[in-house]
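Marked as duplicate of an earlier ticket. Keeping the data here for the record.
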Amino acid sequence: MSVLLIEAFHGGSHKQLMDLLQEELQDDCVLYTLPAKKWHWKARTAALYFMQTVPASANYRILFASSVLNLAELTALRPDLGKLKKVLYFHENQLAYPVQKCQERDFQYGYNQILSWFMPEHKLAHLEKVIGVKRNGDAYHPEGLPGQQKSSALMKNSNTHCESGLCEAQPGLYTTQHEGLPSPLTVPVRLNTSEASESANPCQEEDKEHLTFNLSHILSGPDYQQRPLHIAWPHRWEHDKDPETFFKVLLKLKEKDLPFHVSVLGEAFTEIPDIFSEAKKVLGSSVLHWGYLPSKDDYFRALCMADVVISTAKHEFFGVAMVEAVYCGCYPLCPKALVYPEIFPAEYLYSTPEQLFKRLQNFCKRPDTVRKHLYKGETAGFSWAALGSKFRSLLAAEPREDL
């Protein structure tokens, strides 16, 4: 077992990434995890837990972890692991993560991230020499990168491999291949919950009847091109995805008596923003699906049946859900901010909620224009087929004496 994989929050995209790497590396890795609960507690204490549970081994060469783990603490507690080549994946930047309430930010989590990739002066000099970074005060930035937006850059150094924010990483290594996705017009739709996974979100048990598709009136309805616009929102039910803006736009469409259907997908946790229950009541019959789908096949079916996919996120390093939806044939509408301008052509970006409303208003009036549209961007570069060899190479590299 030459690769040690550690994930302190084994759920969502964190789990998808680690499971994918474990599948690819097979017998050459070992994975240690903690459940995807109480994120803040894991960020503070995971190092102590893994210090005790990860056995010592002379076979480890590489340690791969997400930045939920305080890597500095772990390597201090376990000097044997400190000697390994380390790859640290940043799913988010805790120094820029939106604060939910008007309160002072807890800087501990951002501080943990800084400690986990901080390097001594001699290694920074080596980094500057090898990969061409320039010093800006006490900080280092890759040449030609505009701040924290260049998520497509691959920044390599001896100890860390970071995604955006504090340093940059190649996006998409938690995307999956979707070859052979079924056509939304031919797939058999499951109309009961008897086969639902036991991993279904307990916070949404009251909505179990919404874990299936309400499609009987669609499959037997008017001509496909004339059906109401189908809007998908496939994001976590949390404040950083800004569900308030999304639902305000939908409610405005409803007030204008514009026809549309909506599928609100994504996982919910203990605290669900009030806007979800409020919007569900008002949207009424416009809702086709409401809630988390534990089955990946059902999730992709939902995306294949949608016409438009929306993001209203306030914090996004890549946005795997948006790219997956585009791959399934959805027309994307994203904020002209964060990482989105790097991934999506300008015609798929909006600057204000008013612009988003106007775009959807036009689509509601002419849904056929969206259904006939061919996406003008590229998604192939984000697939595992394109990125897999890069990460296999990264995790197979032999440590060097100068690292």
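See parent ticket for discussion. Residues 202-380 form a domain with the Rossmann fold fold (CATH 3.40.50.2000).
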